[in-house]
Amino acid sequence: YDKVIISIDTLKRDIQYGAALDASYWDIIVIDEAQNVADRAVNGRSAQRAKLAKRLASRSDTLIMLSATPHDGRARSFASLMNMLDPTTLPDPERYDKKDVEHLYVRRFKKDVMAEVSGSFPERKVTQENCMATAAEEEAFDYLTDMKLVMDMHQKRSNSFLFKTMLEKSLFSSPAACIKTIDERVKRLAKKDASDRTGDIDRLEGLKAALEKIGPMQFSRYQRLLQLLRSADYGWHNGEDADDRIVIFTERIETKNYLEEHLRQDLKLPKKAIVSMDGGMSDVEQQKIVEDFGTKSSSVRILVASDVASEGLNLHYLSHRLIHFDTPWSLMVFQQRNGRIDRYGQRKQPDIRFMMINSRNAKIQGDAHILEILQQKEDQARKDIGDPSLLMGKFDVDQEEDFTREAIESGESAENFAARLCIPDEDIDHSDERSGDVETVADDDVFDPLSFFNLTTLDGSDTASTEENESAGESVTGSADDGGIVDSSTLMSDYEYVDEGLSCEEFRQSAGLKSKRQLRDAHGFAVEFQGESPLRAWLRRRVPNTRVLRDNIAEWSDDAKYCEDQANGLLARINDESWSRVQYLWELNPIAEWVGLKASSLLYQRDEAPIIGVTNGNLHADETIMLMNGMVANRHASPVIDEWFGVRYLDGECMGILPLEEVWRITGYRGNLIPGTTERRYVNREDSAASSEQIDAAQLLLEDAVSRGKSMLSDYGEQYRAQADEEVTRQMDRIEHWSHARKALLQSQGKNTKENTKQVDRMLEQYADWVQDTLDASGEPVIRIAAAFVGKE
């Protein structure tokens, strides 16, 4: 296969895939969720994922790593990712700065791409639902805060929760979750001390008795949830609209089960209208639930999920409502949960609700206020810097929860906690100033390589310097590879290309088509295959599910919304998967590839090219333009020079070499703008046959055109080699500097062993060879005649 998608955890199995990886080389390798392959070696041993990533990094010239959370606050682990991209970048993985990595790293926030995807990120609406504790809840709160556990007095590990804090955390989820926590601990205590000499079991049983008094009517957050779902202002209408579904997040499985059971009863929902998922389910079970939740024809209306659903899932197709039934103690979890519906492709305004408890118990109210601060800070950080994890500087969910736990256990005030959750001023995007003061503080102990890039805009340039330079009328370029956006328009749309190909009689015979018709409800077409159709056999190996070719029929449309609606329709359910019978027609659809293959084999034989008569262009009858492609390859046989151009002749005399855009302008083959309008005038396709005399004349020009093309490529090659030599020299100087710095570091650390020195020399040699082989233009010029254009009266 020329394209492969595979999970890291599958590929890391060395016995199965190691030899195959070492024997393969790829044009591009993309690693998604790249934070999972950072090297966090423990006792000198790297994880299998990190070892695999290092291996892959040497199997391709191009490595792209994608991550929303690319570091854990440790300089070394982030450096491991940079060194996979370029092993000669950082001599010291513990000490480096912006200039060392800026050529390897590009950061994007929603605000950076809003102009490109207008309307794709509706501003979220965040609402705090205040819930007044009932008398039964207040009794349980008072019992909990007054309770003193002997086990907590003997707690020696400062980095772990006091059990009383665990009880409070579970109670903030639900009484059912807290009871489960109590039951499990009582079992453990009873095994250790049957007589309960400490009295902790009795105290816990007393708290359990208080919790058991909190039925659904006394459970304030549950009652507020019911009120919200039934509210006309909320507008959910008990799930009558299949496009309006709700995600409810909770941390504890017991709370999830409680909500699923009672919501189904109290809202009188059908059994399949409310579903739940948690980490105890298999991947297949979880994926089935996600597919049903995003399928319009399914009866699902509410998904109650534990935090297993907070990462990597698309829940936004039919849902813009999310409710945090309990409040996470980690900013990263906040961000992950909200990102399930507040993401690219969301068509409606995300409606996010937080259920917050209000109590007369001062301790409970203070701790609830701390959780409220977390929610507020997550929203503030998202708007100002795009990354709430910078506030705590932990970059790890467990460590963030410890940060919150320490504040609660120490009795820290919410105001002081808020002051510690502050955004360094240098990290704030001031392009959209908001009212009110923003607390700022600098923490030199927190490593944040991402802060280098917080003001990076779409072209990689710094926001402040951009404004200054633009005001001075200067152009601005960024440190990242800033190639800009290229117009990739083609002679035909993808639809026209395939439609015309399948309408060609030679193509139809080769494909084994019985008939072809337009779709009734959309811009598209369907074909029926006959017998053992070669095209159907070819497609079977390439379509996502062979059932889309059932009944010997295939359908395509370039209407993405129509294809999506078909996938969501009941009739499109295939083997419990949501594959649309109508396939989306774009340039990477297999049918477009098939048309291209047939166009090159059926229309023109080897060493043949079309000659096209132009009637509506600016080409005269005695003019000819040879459209040519010229390439020069490096030592890897990859083109380093790849030029399209035209050689223009008048009465057999060469008038010069034209850039590609000039060829299109003169021939009109890409369509020329009609003066005073936005419309384009295209060449006449009805009668484009050249005369026999023109064909003979063009044939005589071939040798001269190829000679001139090679001469031009030779000139380009000289210019390229001069630039390449400068780049090779620069790269060699850089990696020599890296080598000296790396060896000096090893010596200062007492690690300048013979083996370590050899490893540095080996990396230097390998990278130097790669630079030479990649930049060298040693291949012979290759010329291809793509077409000839002649003028017609």
Automatic annotation (TrEMBL):
Region (Disordered), start-end ranges: 458-484
The keyword Nucleotide-binding belongs to this UniProt entry's keyword annotation: yes
UniProt keywords, alphabetically: ATP-binding, Helicase, Hydrolase, Nucleotide-binding
Residue ranges annotated for the Helicase C-terminal domain, each copy included: 221-389
Residue ranges of coiled coil: none
Residues annotated as domain Helicase ATP-binding: 1-88
Cross-referenced SMART domains: HELICc (SM00490)
InterPro entries: Helicase_ATP-bd (IPR014001), Helicase_C-like (IPR001650), P-loop_NTPase (IPR027417), SNF2-like_sf (IPR038718), SNF2/RAD54-like_C (IPR049730)
Alphabetized GO MF terms: helicase activity; hydrolase activity
Pfam family, one: Helicase_C
Record's keyword annotation contains Nucleotide-binding: yes
Protein name: DEAD/DEAH box helicase
